[in-house]
Write a structure and sequence with these properties.
Elements: H1 7-31, H2 37-58, H3 70-91, H4 96-103, H5 106-117, H6 124-141, H7 150-172, H8 178-199, H9 206-232, H10 235-242, H11 245-257, H12 263-283
Length: 292
């Protein structure tokens, strides 16, 4: 496999990531016009598990998903399941650009939790990143105005849940294969959404099925694009490209749903993204100087 460093190839794969992630937000909102959140996640996870099977087969079959850390898998994925429910539900309550802006606080919560439970060092740079992210959330939500939208709080809770989930994944990657981590995520989401999804099942129209399948496809293969991008460039090059998702999602919300983001949301998103850049700076190893 060609792994020659190439910023051009990294940018092309990240363009795929951005397109697929943007599609998830739009397709999720459209699908939820006809189905409930549990039904959408049931379809997304079931189809995603089928799409994952070729990777499991290539890794050696279901023996590749055997684990000695089942409780951690279950705990992580229950939290992730709740966060994903909240994220999709927030799409129906607030502008999609605002959902994604708040979602970008996830690395900040991950940094806090990794320092608390995984022994990672909390530096001045990480502290500044956390402060910027928290101020950005306050600017977007504006609690002093007494006009807090429940969708904002749900999106924030989802971001915290995703941050906890990522911190737990960092622990799992020390012993588990990638296919094992993704397999248990899909399995827990199917188990959690099966009964509520079937109880409230209403047969979707062909269009709604199409949107739900788009969520499943994009949700499965977007991470493949991100992984490929990482093959061609360092995280310091790849991750800032993801910040384009905030303005692109806001643009899609404006074009498709006539959603307008106010100056507070724009400023808050800028603070959150700056915090991410600072956190990325904190996570970049210092260059090793040759001995004299």
């Amino acid at each position: 496999m060609d792994r020659t460093p190439s910023k051009t190839m990294a940018a092309l794969w990240m363009a795929g990531w951005l397109a697929l992630m943007l599609m998830i937000a739009v397709a999720g909102r459209e699908a939820l016009r006809e189905m409930n959140v549990f039904q959408l996640i049931l379809i997304r996870s079931s189809v995603g598990l089928l799409l994952l099977y070729p990777l499991i087969h290539r890794a050696g079959g279901f023996s590749a998903v055997r684990t000695q850390r089942l409780p951690l898998h279950l705990g992580r994925n229950v939290i992730h399941f709740g966060a994903q429910l909240g994220w999709f539900f927030a799409l129906t309550l607030i502008p999609i650009g605002q959902v994604v802006a708040i979602e970008f606080t996830m690395p900040i919560w991950t940094a806090i939790l990794a320092a608390m439970f995984l022994g990672e060092r909390m530096t001045i740079w990480k502290s500044c990143a956390i402060a910027l992210g928290l101020v950005g959330v306050v600017v977007i939500v504006r609690p002093a105005t007494s006009e807090i939208n429940p969708g904002q709080l749900i999106a924030l809770a989802a971001a915290v849940g995703f941050g906890i989930s990522i911190a737990m994944v960092k622990s799992l990657t020390r012993t588990e294969q990638t296919v094992s981590i993704v397999f248990y995520m899909a399995a827990v989401q199917i188990a959690g959404s099966l009964l509520p999804g079937l109880y409230a099942w209403s047969w979707p129209s062909p269009a709604a099925w199409g949107w739900a399948l788009a969520v499943a496809f994009c949700g499965t293969y977007s991470h493949y694009c991100m992984t490929r991008a990482m093959l061609y460039a360092d995280a310091t090059v790849v991750i800032p490209m993801d910040f384009l998702r905030v303005p692109l999602t806001a643009l899609a919300g404006w074009l498709l749903y006539s959603e307008r983001l106010d100056a507070f949301t724009v400023f808050g998103a800028a603070l959150i993204l700056t915090g991410n850049l600072v956190n990325l700076r904190a996570s970049t190893p210092a260059p090793v100087r040759p001995a004299a």
